[in-house]
Design a protein that fits this description.
The complex is a heterodimer. By secondary structure, chain A is α/β, with parallel strands linked by helices. Chain A has nine helices and seven strands; from the N terminus they run ααβααβαβββααβαβα. The radius of gyration of chain B is 19 Å and the shape is globular. Classes of the chains: A alpha/beta, B alpha/beta.
Amino acid sequence: MESKALAKAVRIDVVEMIHRSHASHIGSALSIVDILSVLYTDIMKYDTADPAWEGRDRLVLSKGHAGSALYAVLAEVGFFPKSWLENYDLNGSPLSGHVSHKGVPGVEFSTGSLGHGACVACGMALASKLNGKTNRTFAIVGDGECDEGSIWEMAMFANHFRLSDFTLIVDCNGLQSFGPCEETIELLDLGRKFRDFGWNVMEVEGHDHDALRKAFSARPSNGRPTCVIAKTVKGKGVSFMENNVLWHYRDPQGEEYERALSELQGAEQ
Amino acid sequence: MRNTLVKTLTEEALKDNTIMLLTGDLGFNVLNKFYDVLPQQYVNAGISEQNMTSVAAGLALSGKKVFTYSIGNFSTLRCFEQIRNDICYHNANVKVVSLAAGFAYGPLGMSHHATEDIACMRSLPNMRVFSPADPLETIAVTKAAITSDGPCYIRLGKGGEPNLREAFDIENFEVGKAYQLRDGKANVCIFSTGSVTKEAILAAEQLKDRGSIPVYTFPTVKPIDEEFIRACAERYDAILTLEEHNIVGGLGGAVAEVLAENPSRARLIRLGLRDVFSSVVGDVAYLRHYYKIDAEAVVTALEKVLK
């Protein structure tokens, strides 16, 4: 599947999943759909028939609350049947609201508490380097997640150990739990922060597939890790959810659900 | 004990290049014995225990056997959630080591006293808890940690502890088993864990005119040796637990849980910190005396129940 077609399918999946389960975090999930879609179509090496294949690239979704998007991508590319998505976040399902790896092929690591996954991915990248492997490791964090001190411990570590095959993607949608990040705890210039921590930094439009492909494909040769700051829109693809913190919590029902689906189905691929 | 662990770990890591040692920038003049011969299996993660612990999980999920090392509460409580979510939930092959159980750092103060660590580590699914009493037990638990898959916590004394027995069958060491240190026929017995066990031996020696008191050590606090505890509860009038740790959730707590589910003859006497912080200044001997977990306190407690 081509990345735009995947993104369209995944957005519809996400809305349906969260509608059915009355789960939260729909805006957070829609925010990273394009990032995931580009990674899983054009960038990452993996084998859906052998999820534990040693040569695979690793992706850890550190912002585990956006798990519905990852589950939908994994189902769409064939790690497990799409029918599993129907029970997302419901009693007895393997698919919990926050990402869990147990019994879910393709999920590299369970997350949910912020500031963990990126550090674990950093350890995976270190293992690859120590073992002389060339596979890549990706982690996706939210901009609000960068409030966590562990992110900056990781930032120092990954640079110090020159984890050049490690790419951190910051989903910068500008909103966190109570409202704008800048009104919560000023992040200021995240790109500059990571540059100051020794990283290669690329700032891209987080819904532009060509730009994302270019950023993820660039492999700076200075031996340092790469941070892709992806400027995104929370709730991207559904007009009334975009840039609205309410959709960190609310689930679409009734007319809102119909409108969301209609907008997504009518969207260009 | 710390030198014993580092020596044992180095010997094993020379044979197994998947073993890695991560430190949170502590272990000066101790870890160099590992680093000098195996620099490629050593990482100083800096003063950042949260990231170190998550990195350890990532390394372990990529096939490494990882030891994380720091002192006091830094490798345990500081990064408790990383141990819970990243290591234990994923059953990652990470061994968390903390140097200086209980009061070992003496006058450095409460920040450096590990007195709730057993309780916290014991509460985590998949986590085993080792608390060796002497260098011989330290060798045994270090080897057991390496040869068995999955998480564990190793709580060490600071150093210079004597061996409490002449010989210990390290090759046949069993995880989850209590070991007899001193034989006895008295109507009471002592259960102890960690370096404070020395006080139990001293107490038994001081009481020898009143009867021979058996002393048992628990190098594994989790899984606890339930069968042995149940047998002792039938055999003795009283069991005294001794630990340099809060009585809440430590060895005494673990034994209490077993006894509560198995009504029996023995009463339980728990010696440990009685749910307080160690706020006075002093060396180990001073603090053990102040908080009544030394030989004298054991003698006083046992005199009331000895027949």
